[in-house]
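Data's thin. Show one?
=====
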Amino acid sequence: ISLLRAMAKIEIIDNIAQDYYDYRPEITASSLAGHLSAGTLVPDLAANPSWSVEGTQVVSPTEPANPVKANTPLKFFVAGKNANGHNVYTAYVAEQDLKQLTATSRPAVSLTISIEGNLVNYNVLLSEYENGNPSVPFESILRNHIYSFEIVRVTYPPKLEIHYTVCPWVTETIKIPDFE
């Protein structure tokens, strides 16, 4: 059976450089606000006619008939460490059309970062980033995609340097050997 995942994955990677601080700043809390409270199991067939073909990605988000935003922020969980040993915070969300949303109603990630004992709050917009600033807002959050934001530098007053990646979420098949 080949099923496309019905969720999108958003991950925050804590790769903050120590720079000129005595201690390396670190993420202490992360959450997402402005996301939908529910999604759909199957994509819209008219907008995504080839969705059931293995290896085909959806190109248009499918929202419930009456989409409702969640009342409370969704907290990220620590999913483990990446290959470089950095903490990865993850949240799974339903796909969402973002084109018609205003800047204040778009989903955004809230981060709390400890900088030398001070807790500083930052907002990460779901956007492309250029020179540390959001440049082109994402038009949608799509199922079966990973939205990865690597936080590499922080300054005070609050500014983040972010590297971002959006990629299809693929699976590989492996052969598990028989055990006796």
Q: What stands out?
A: The CA atoms of residues 43 and 62 lie 5 Å apart. DSSP finds no helices and 13 strands in the chain.
